[in-house]
Amino acid sequence: MSNDEEIYEELSEVKSLKLSNESKNYNFLDNNNLLEDKFYRLRMIDYDGMVSFSPVVMVKVNPLNQLRLFPVPTKNILNIKGYFGKSADIEIKISDLNGTNFPVYNKNKIAEDHYTIDLSSLKPNNYLINISCNGKNASFRILKL
Q1: Do residues 28 and 82 share a domain?
Q2: What is the pLDDT of residue 31?
Q3: What band does 145 get if pLDDT is binned at 50, 70 and 90?
Q4: pLDDT in tens, 38-97
Q5: Domain end: 30, 61, 92, which one?
Q6: What is the 3-state composition of the chain as percent helix, strand, coil, each rounded to the nearest 5?
Q7: What stretch of H or E contains 17?
Q8: Residue 21 belongs to what domain range?
Q9: What are 112-137's pLDDT values in tens digits?
Q10: Count of structural domains, the chain
Q11: What is the spatial distance between Cα 140 and Cα 44, in angstroms, rounded to a whole number?
């Protein structure tokens, strides 16, 4: 696994099933840091000690797809929880279902993975919350009571 396609770290070793002329299927699940794009390749070692590498595969991840907004429906304060990155500055846009945009007041960063926004100035209605961070976007529909 690599973050930059230059320096790779070994994640696991999967032993060969058996010496065979038939195709064999192997698998491994990487549960570490699934919040950034990663590059993967396989290092294969034959029984004679010959080493070869698979083509590099890039896995694109949008951490905004893992965000949680709560409570929904909400009266005033909406919590946005999820990993944004240490230096990330998120942009939040609010619009109604007709496309009218509303200013976001009091966007507070509670923690690295937690923001709140005050919706008390909005009338009860359905709204779209559009969140952008580091070139990635996600949209959520909420009900303001």
Answers
A1: no
A2: 75
A3: very high
A4: 899 999 888 888 899 999 999 887 777 778 999 999 999 999 998 776 666 678 999 999
A5: 61
A6: 5, 40, 55
A7: none
A8: 1-61
A9: 788 899 999 999 999 999 998 878 88
A10: 2
A11: 43
Query: Could you give the C-alpha distances from 131 to 7, 50, 145, in angstroms and in order?
Result: 32, 48, 21
In this structure, are 4 and 71 located in the same domain? Answer: no
Residue 136 token pair: 């990635």
Q: Determine the residue type at 110.
A: I
What's the CATH code of the domain at 90? Answer: 2.60.40.10
* 36/48 Cα distance (integer angstroms): 36
Does one domain contain both 71 and 135?
Answer: yes
Last residue of a domain, one of 31, 61, 91: 61
* Tokens representing residue 110 in the block: 């509670």
Q: Are residues 97 and 127 in the same domain?
A: yes
Rounded CA separation 99/49 (Å): 62
Yes or no: say if 126 and 96 are a contact pair by the CB < 8 Å rule. yes
**What pLDDT shows up at residue 47?**
80
